[in-house]
Amino acid sequence: MSTPNLKIENLRVSIEDKEIIKGLNLEINGGEIHAVMGPNGTGKSTLSSALMGHPKYEVTEGQVTFNGEDLFEMEVDERAKAGLFLAMQYPSEVSGITNADFLRSAINARREEGQEISLMKFIRELDKKMELLEMDSSFAHRYLNEGFSGGEKKRNEILQLMMIEPKIAILDEIDSGLDIDALKVVAKGVNEMRNPEFGCLIITHYQRLLNYITPDKVHVMMQGRIVKSGGPELAQRLEAEGYDWIKEELGIEDETVGQEA
Amino acid sequence: MSVETSLKYDRDYVSKFSESRQEPQWLLELRLRALELAQQLPMPKPDKTKIDKWNLTDFNHESTAEESAQLPEQVKALIGEEEAGNLLVIRNGKVAHSSISEELSSQGVIFTDFKTASQKHGDLLQKYFMKEAVSVEENRLTAIHAALVTNGAFIHVPKNVELKTPLQAIYFHDDEQTGLVNHVIIAAEDNSSVTYVENYLSTNETRESVANIVSEVFAGPGAKVVYGAVDNLAKGMTSYINRRGRAERDARIDWALGQLNDGNTVSDNTTHLVGDGSYADTKTVNIGQGDQKQNFVAQIFHHGKNSEGYILTHGVMKDSASSIFNGITKIEHGATKSNGEQTERVLMLSEKARGDANPILLIDEDDVTAGHAASVGRIDPIQLFYLMSRGISKAEAERLIIHGFLRPVVNEMPLESVKKRLVEVIERKVR
């Protein structure tokens, strides 16, 4: 099995004719954990949604290859089946479908007919992972995200991540709205996934998640592109000093999209 | 183009038909009076659905199809485990199977077909047949119904008898040349209780025919009737369905209706809460597909004090199907302390599909509580994106969303066999 690879080159993305991502380059390989940090409004979530194929975002330029294949030639479900995963910042609520049924459908969608996961094995896996994420077993039988608190939804995203076992996962502000205990649980889930066959892109504007999941690379995003990259020490400096020193260094006055000098 | 609305059957035909079945005199007279009315009365006028080009009146009456002792596989598949002992199967208007347990018959319970009831229980039938619930005079179709009714079910539960297991009826129509004119009566005397499940099934995918179905439910003081139905008539069948209940003091009627025909359908479900403290609960699941046109009414009239009525309707419209969903809660003057609530929800799956949900509260009394909710919407593209982002195909995601949308109603259905059958039919329709 070849190492997973997601390669983004000169990506430009618009929403309702407003350009948000303005020429972004990034490459993620299996075994690597990348963090994209940056203040609000710099295009971080747009990057994750566009990669997964959110219907509102339009890719206007650039190329993304996923394990050598053109990602934008694939439908959303094909991207997922190829091994891409997005833990969403605001997961949808879907009434009438239980969490367990949904997860089984998702797992079986990756398997050939006749090769579906057995119910026993599925339940065993689900129980194990829910226990690790400290989720009450009742969540399996509740309707998908319906009435879940913010933190419960985030845990549920990580549960899906662990059950589906993608090759590359993007975690979009998985830490927002989480208390420290929940944050640790989520981090435990992600760390559990760490192996050479799994790459991860963590999008966050707080450094605190990175105390529990040590990234290999840290990127700072401003004005719709990556303006600085470094190792874990970059995240620590951002935590200690904020973003102003980067703005100063690069001569940026307002880091949000649309404020380029 | 206009559809021929005069009947091809005359007095002579109806008299001979009634005579050949040794019907009591009152029924013959009622049929003949109905035949006359059928020429005079107007067609029903379902709100916002034009039915003047539908054929609901021109059909062949009696089936000449051969009777067979073997039940077809489609019918066997419908027989619920619990219901197997008390089962009526009518095929093309003729009894194909009729059984009632020793226990029930010894308690005086009657569960038989309409034809047998007219011969053996004529007086009892006369007391209920098209009088207080659905009247012959209501419209041309109720008149045609009375004139030409071929079969159906008659259920009578004596005072204080509580049935523990459900009764099941299956109306199967595979003689594609003839119409289906079916009548169901459930009379539950004081403090009795009964659960009845029915399945309508036909094979006429392309061949056009007519279904004219009337059900009358009488819940006497303190009685409880649970009525479950799964309508699944084929595309060629144009259907008029009129199910009506009357609940006396402290009586309760629960309707669980899967309105899942493939052809054009007008379906009216009405409950009159006549007695003080009476209670009605109407739950319906509806699907429209192809170019199907449907009109669904669910209504509850509150006459008695402290009466409670609940309506819950979920509908899915696919392709270029269109449906009207009218929920009507009418609280009459004097029905103090009553409560009426209703919810209609419609999910449209395509640009061409139409669903129109109209919650209507008509209240002539001050001292009541009532509420309604309605929504009509399309599949949320963000929901679809979410499901697809986990590798689920668009078609499968839509299927999950539809099941999910209907599940809150399906889950509330009072009978396992109805639930199971509903899920099967929904599954077939959403594929």
Structure description:
The complex is a heterodimer of chains A (261) and B (431). Chain A is an alpha/beta fold and 261 residues long. Chain A has eight helices and ten strands. Chain A is 33% helix and 26% strand. In chain A, the strands form two sheets. In chain A, strands 6-7-8-3-9-10 form a six-stranded mixed sheet, sandwiched between helices. Chain A has a four-stranded antiparallel sheet with strand order 2-1-4-5. In chain A, helix 6 links the parallel strand 7 (168-172) and strand 8. In chain A, helix 5 (150-164) runs parallel beside helix 6. The longest helix of chain A is centred in the middle third of the chain and has 15 residues, at 150-164. The model of chain A has no long low-confidence stretch (mean pLDDT 94). Chain B has one domain (11-379). In chain B, a hairpin with a 2-residue loop joins strand 1 and strand 2. In chain B, helix 1 (11-20) runs antiparallel to helix 2 (25-40), helix 5 (114-120) packs across helix 6 and helix 9 runs antiparallel to helix 10. Chain A binds chain B through residues 52-55, 75-77, 79-81, 85-86, 88, 91-92, 94-97, 101-102, 105-106, 109-110, 143-144, 160, 164, and chain B through 380-383, 385-394, 396-397, 400-401, 403-408.
